[in-house]
Structures
1.
Amino acid sequence: MIPTPEAPAPRSAAAPAAAARGGAGSFHTLWNELAPIGRHADSGGYRRYAWTGADADCRAWFRAQAESRGLTYEVDRNGNQWAWLGDPLAGDAVVTGSHLDSVPDGGAFDGPLGVVSSFAALDELRSRGAAFSRPLAITNFGDEEGARFGLACVGSRLAAGQLTKEKAYELRDGDGVSLPEAMERAGYDPETIGADPERLARIGAFVELHVEQGRALDLSGDRVGIASAIWPHGRWRFDFHGEANHAGTTRLVDRRDPMLTYAATVLAARQEAALAGAVATFGKISVEPNGVNAIPSLVRGWLDSRAADQATLDTVVTAVEKAAREHADRDGIDLAVVRESFTPVVEFEHALRDELNRILGGSVPVLGTGAGHDAGILSAAVPTAMLFVRNPTGVSHSPREFAAEDDCVAGVLALADVLEGLACR
Ligand SMILES: [Zn+2]
């Protein structure tokens, strides 16, 4: 059981001692230092949003860890943090890391587990006396969750050229603060943001360790797994147009009630996803006029659907749309469906994945995931792999997200083995 964040260890640069203790002791110290930052007292969840005070505290912690280990610290043109062992310019670097920001009232592990494990794995390798033949870097990618500006993986998307400076400048938070304004207020220069191919070209392999956001490892009885792919996923907006009318005086047979059609569509989505072994969720809805005594004129629902492969996802979404149209015809509703976003499947590089499996003894489970990651963004430009650590609750993006300290340490040792295998040849 990981100690609660209420009793943190004093925040100090005890890294050399931690390194001497190896990965397990180092993990414990690092985890408890970081745990109180951005934790909300009422919910017990984390509110570490990009370019806020909690984010700045996380970044200060990262920098202190880098400097106390004698690593070369730098911030790239997109505000991502880097800690280098060896020459950052030499090329063919082995890079590991994740993110420190959170969703609203997020869990402690999504992101921070990867960053903390990276420093702990380095301490483990130093305690083993490892000799590095390639540069090694630890990263903290900025704004991974997109909690503040509504777009996920901003730091890695910018670096990979998948988000332009112009588009990034249009991003605004709920208070109308733009991304460049937020960066500037946090002391970073937004002028320089944009694609960073030179930096990515210096990376020979990127390995992200992450808490599992599901229960596959719990069910298989394994502490650590390797990612095969990130499922393709998309968002579709369903607009059900009916006719507003009085909830008391309009006879049922005279109604054109889009809420009925929407409700039938939600049930269809659940059924089609279950049939296909996929997932489909209506998690957001807007209603007009949104009055308790009014039949709605418009119900707008957003479908998020993901599946292991493109064909399955297409099957599910096509079937949901077909069901929605059939109900709409019956209910006298006009339906419009718009695909708002789509991310194709990300297959992690097979050679690197096989290499990780070989390093870890050849019997590590290989799993797909329905969640997006910086590693998925970078995989377009860099050989990329992911390690997952068991999460017995299967819950993520919630304070119930959990990994036992034993399992976290198993993750640290697996990451250390992988980094040793890749960077110490
Ligand atoms: Zn994450």
2.
Amino acid sequence: MILKPKKPEPTWLASFIKPNILKGKAYSIQKEAITVKLDQNESPYDWPQAMKERVLADLVQQKWNRYPDGYSTEIQELLAKKLNITPESIFLGPGSNILIANLLLLLTARKETRTLVATPSFPLYAECLRNYEAEHAPWYLTDDFEYDVAKLKSLGPFSLLVLASPNNPVGNVLSKKDLVFLLKEYPQSYFLVDEAYYEFVDESFLDLLGEHANLILVRTFSKSLGAAGVRIGYVLAHESILCELKKITVPYLLNHFCAAVARACLTDDSFLNWTKEVRAGIILEKEKIFKRLAEICPSKGIFVFRSWTNFLLLRCASQEQAENLTRHLVKNDILVRNVSAGPNLTGCLRVTVGNLEENAKFLAAMAHF
Ligand SMILES: Cc1ncc(COP(=O)(O)O)c(C=O)c1O
């Protein structure tokens, strides 16, 4: 007989777990057996076989009985060289989501902190803050889903502003000019900027770290570098805040596999050039999809937002239409992300740019909706 752990009394469990966590829901991932997967903003192109073999050969050389380097100093140095930044200003972890969760835990633990979260944006931010019972308020995007710095007048000292640029699920960006204004105007506030999709725009905020002590950037290998299945992310900031982050984070975050993948990637310029070509192709495809949708969608009452990422956001005329469209796409073996439960996202679906064949299938299915 299979052992089934005894269920604790619900009231007893409730005496340990905070009510907001008991009420909450874990992040859910659609798991339908669908071929055209356009729901998670992944790269549609897997790594070349030769790169995978290089990683495997490296892995075989590692001592699996030994812990990996506690803070991945070798990878830190390789990445520092690529980014032309000091290694101490980099903190690596298994994906950017856990790093964001830990940064939010660290920065919102004091009652005095006023946290503002770009809305709509990546739901993880607000979910973490709810779990931590950290007070937070939305910084709403405009009706046409742009950032509006004028709405931030209330940003006082000891505030934390959390945003993504480019933003998910909208695809909009905060201009560098606006960010510089905020960093200068509110030197006593922290700005946590998630740059998960920064490779898809020409503008990065990296150079601002030299001038502004109140900026923290978070990045990932999951999107443009096409390594979502490996789990590598990093924080860029002055080492003083990273030292504090270290205290609330366990060591050995990058195992031998993550480190071997990062090493292979960061020491192979031809691979990095290949990812640039892939990215250029995805951007081109996104423009094509946008143009075609702009022809197909208006007569159906569907609006498509401009995007600076590898995905597009569609707003259907109603929630019902969004659900019908999701079902219609599933019938056509296509999975997109229905994000309509999010704040101000009624009727919205997010579609990742796939490979040429997937995009053609998606557009054909849209035309027949
Ligand atoms: C804005 C944003 N930040 C962070 C992440 C998490 O990425 P990672 O795979 O590095 O955890 C995502 C994933 O979709 C994202 O869209």
